[in-house]
Amino acid sequence: MDTEFERFLTDISDAFIDRKFDQWRDRLILPFSLVTKLKPIVLATEDAVRDSFHQYLVAAKMMNLDLIDRVPISLEACPDGTWLGTFRTRMLSGAHLATAPYTSTALLHNAEGRFRMSSMLNARGHQDWTGVEEA
What we know:
By secondary structure, the chain is α+β, with helices and mostly antiparallel strands. It has four helices and seven strands. It has helices at 2-17, 21-25, 46-62, 127-130, and strands spanning 28-35, 40-43, 67-77, 82-93, 96-97, 102-111, 114-121. Strands 1, 2, 3, 4, 5, 6 and 7 form a seven-stranded mixed β-sheet that branches. The mean pLDDT is 90.
């Protein structure tokens, strides 16, 4: 499962750099929740996920990101069949950090050998950079 966790992290990172909504959406389970420093956010519909993705693209453009690097820290199997995947995120513009690295944990579900995420704890809300609040 470690290899699949790495694949998952690559997919959710590259989706924003490559501007591929379908790649991001393919790794989510709705409703999808993000717990940010400011507040919890629940994206319950396709439109909400699409709007949120767009705002993150705006933030990526504002920061001139060319790399989002997520490195696995731990992967823990839970008794209910889910997994907790903890990882460190770095966002880079050129060779420079665009923001301080941070650690997050995803609640992962194994769907036919592939991880899909239903929640992310300690996510970074795009509102930090865009000023746009999630609905």
